[in-house]
Amino acid sequence: MLPIRDRNPSGHTPYVTYALIALNVAVFLAYWPAGTGASIDEVFRTWGMVPARLTSGEGLYTPLTSVFVHGGWFHIGLNMLFLRIFGDNLEAEMGHLKFLGFYLLCGVLAALMQYVSALHSEVPVAGASGAVAGVMGGYFLMFPRARVEVGFYLVVAFRIIAMPAWLLLSLWFALQVWGGMSTPASSSSVAFWAHIGGFLAGVLLSVRMWRMRGGRMFWHRFHGLPPHPTAEYAVPVVRRRGARLPPPQARGLFRSKD
């Protein structure tokens, strides 16, 4: 199950979202594979957050720097995809600078949540997933009925369906809680508690903005959707030279009513 896009793009250029994606990719390329001349393990232990090191009073900067360190193309690719899907509408509501502060604070709080779950772990914690989880938490509160297109791989077929954000993100959060409760934090290769902490931080840090917009009245006014029109999607059609162009409905040019 992989989110692909939401159906209510903000209509504004999400400069901070794009800048964060570019910065994460630039940092990743600087050391992968060992672009700095240092080993990957050294990068993780220097810039990632090692709970045992933090407990001893070292690496106090790492809850922040760990947000920009990733363990591979799949790791950074998923995080940046989720940031792109859920970041633009939240940035449009918060404003560029507030969104940047929100993102970084969620990342730090997520890292600290993971730290508290395993104070003496020697496993480095790295990745933007805690900060991105915060963005998802804010999106969950602000736009619960937004439709997110999700791809499903069904063994012999790949299908795309639209799911409401509250359902998709609730399922995701439940999986993180299940993973955190069933796997020892000191030995898990996934920072489940960072995901949980980031998501909860995102919800809590967005409450004030939600209330200022009217709280439940904001939901009722826009039906739980971002205050932007639903996007039009064009489906390309390959046709023979000289053939007449079919009507727009047949070509798949339409405005979604979801």
Give the gist of this structure.
The protein is mostly helical.
Folded structure, characterized:
There is one protein chain. The chain is mainly α and 258 residues long. The protein has a single domain, classed as Up-down Bundle (Rhomboid-like fold), CATH 1.20.1540. Helix content is 55%, strand content 9%. It has a three-stranded antiparallel β-sheet with strand order 1-2-3. Strands 4-5 form a two-stranded antiparallel ribbon.
Radius of gyration, whole Å: 20 Å
According to CATH, what is the class?
Mainly Alpha
Shape: globular
Class by SSE composition:
mainly alpha
Q: Percent of residues in helical segments? A: 55-70%
Tally of contiguous helical segments = 11
Mean pLDDT: 85
Identify low-pLDDT runs: 233-258
Query: What is the fold-level CATH name, i.e. the topology?
Result: Rhomboid-like fold
- β-strand percent reads 5-15%
Tally the structural domains: 1
Distance between the termini: 20 Å
The CATH architecture assignment turns out to be Up-down Bundle
Q: How can the largest sheet be summarized?
A: 3 strands, antiparallel
Strand order of the largest sheet: 1-2-3
What pattern of helices and strands is seen along the backbone? EHHHHHHHEEHHHEHE
Q: Tally the beta strands.
A: 5
Key features of this structure:
258 residues; mainly alpha; Rhomboid-like fold; three-stranded antiparallel sheet; two-stranded antiparallel ribbon; 5 strands; 9% strand; globular; hydrolase; cell membrane; transmembrane helix
